[in-house]
Amino acid sequence: PSFLRIILEKADELGADVSSLCKAVVSGEALPPTLRKLLNDRGVVVRQAYASADLGVIAYETPSEEGLVVEEDVLLEIVRPGTGDPVAEGEVGEVVVTSFNRDYPLLRFATGDLSALLPGISPCGRTNMRIKGWLGRADQTTKVKGMFVHPSQVATVLARHGDVGRARLVVDNAGGQDRMVLHCEVASPSDALQAALVASIREVTKLRGEVAFLAPAALANDGKVIEDLRSYE
Hints:
Layout: H1 2-14, E1 23-26, H2 33-41, E2 45-52, E3 56-61, E4 68-70, E5 74-79, E6 93-99, E7 106-115, E8 117-118, E9 130-131, E10 142-144, E11 147-149, H3 151-159, E12 164-172, E13 179-186, H4 191-205, E14 210-214, E15 226-228
Parallel strand pairs: 1-2, 12-15, 13-14
Antiparallel strand pairs: 2-3, 3-4, 4-9, 5-6, 6-7, 8-9, 10-11, 12-13
């Protein structure tokens, strides 16, 4: 959905007529209500799909826009990350999918994505189970603007800059748009170091990121490298 927004904004800059773009199926990242409203206000009806390269479409959104209905040819579970134990309805956990495809069967395939089961059935009339949608990653890997960002990439950035102590990549979505900020513990911050870090983030992750300097020992000692603070309410 973030790339659809970029297309529309670029069309505005170029004065291009994109009025024929009136329907879109989006995937790869969450669709916050603010972004959905922005797209709807532009005349684009948006529906979400949850899919993976291994399984194809797993769940899809209907016109009721109340969660994603699970495809009937797969078995979907929400489990506690790292254990495989089912969680209670409504509790966030990892999406695990079983597919009995004769050519490519998958048993309890752990997607690494977080979601939650919704109670009841969809107002649209579909009776299969529903999930809330994509709510982040079960591990510290996250997805920003449709691209995965891994802790190893943060380590690669830090390895290039010996002046940085510990660091944490914080992802938020203020205003409905994803943003990455690398919080770095630095004894002697400088504009030059900030510019170099911004360049490294772009080169390693292929995404734009910001840098915020902190005093040494300012970050919590909890082993967290990537912190996803995005809200999807």
